Amino acid sequence: MDTDIIISQLIQHFQEIIPLKKNEIDLISQKLEFIRLKKKDYLLREGQISRHMRFIATGSLYAYHIDEKGKENITQLGIENWWVNDLYSYLSELPSRMFIQANEDTTIVQISKSNLELLYREVPAISEFWRLKMQSAYVTLQERTFEHSRADAYTKYRNFVTAYRNIEQRFPQYMIASFLGITVEYLSYLRKKHLSDVS
């Protein structure tokens, strides 16, 4: 694991939204932790408290909860340069109600909650970064909630492939179907319909 390359990747990600000085980059770099996960390894399990913000450097992850019938319901998919977490657990400091698992061999950069609080004071731009990220996450959640209650399955699928280009090939069909709230068979039908519509 080349941590220098991964740190540069994360800093570049921050700098897409906020400016950072050399001394601020040094302060951030000192507070980072690195995790390597093999495919199917867990980053977080139900019942654990999420105490870190986590950035995907390489690989992919998915988050899910298990309903009363024992069925996995996928709520998040994540690839490189995305953040993945149980924000409910992180913000409330209550046990997580979900699992976060590696879909591929994955490298994570994480910042503990206590270190992030320090960075808010030492590098005020980081606070601005997270303010904007949280706003964006809230808007995305609202859109997804609205779409799930109002949009038909084909619209959901079309919006998914438009918003998340190149992600569909990274995850098994059953995960995409679960994320969209449809069956695998119906997903296959929607894929064919979409390919026919765009060709």
From TrEMBL:
The residue ranges of the Cyclic nucleotide-binding domain are: 36-120
Organism of this sequence:
Chryseobacterium arthrosphaerae
Q: Which InterPro entries match?
A: cNMP-bd_dom, cNMP-bd_dom_sf, RmlC-like_jellyroll
* Pfam families according to UniProt: cNMP_binding
Q: Quote the protein name from its UniProt record.
A: Crp/Fnr family transcriptional regulator
Gene3D superfamilies, per database record: Jelly Rolls (2.60.120.10)
Query: Which SUPFAM superfamilies does the protein's record reference?
Result: cAMP-binding domain-like (SSF51206)
